[in-house]
Amino acid sequence: MGDTCTETSPATTIRVDLHDGTAVVRVTGEIDMACEKPVRAAIFEQLHQRPAGLVVDLTGIDFFGSTGIQLLVEAIAHAQRLGVALAVATDRRAVLRPLEITHMSQAVVIYPTVQAGLDALRADGVRADGVRAARHRSSAGVA
């Protein structure tokens, strides 16, 4: 595992780690209009490096508004175009509820932990289009 970047703003901290070729973008704090740009930059920078997979870690998010949803929509589409498998890790209601309400929980595979996301990507359980090969979701859309 190699720490490649840490960026901090008043409401958000972003850290990028590599795990055997799979990138993990860890975001803690808030994702809203005021702090979206550095989060977007970190995710898209990792996608452009075409890792084996990308886990967007939202397990430390306290606020996830419409800006965060839009960011995920764009990241999923970009990952699909590049052929990079993408998964989201979170067990936080602040993230899960908006994703459920907007049906985004059906557009991306959500795991309760980063390790679960890493394991699934390594096992090729998630295709490059972000869809789980064998869908076994709970009602919350969490793997």
From TrEMBL:
Q: Could you cite one Gene Ontology molecular function of this protein?
A: anti-sigma factor antagonist activity
**Pfam family of this protein, just one?**
STAS
The residues covered by the STAS domain are: 12-121
Q: State the family it belongs to.
A: Belongs to the anti-sigma-factor antagonist family.
| Protein name according to UniProt | Anti-sigma factor antagonist
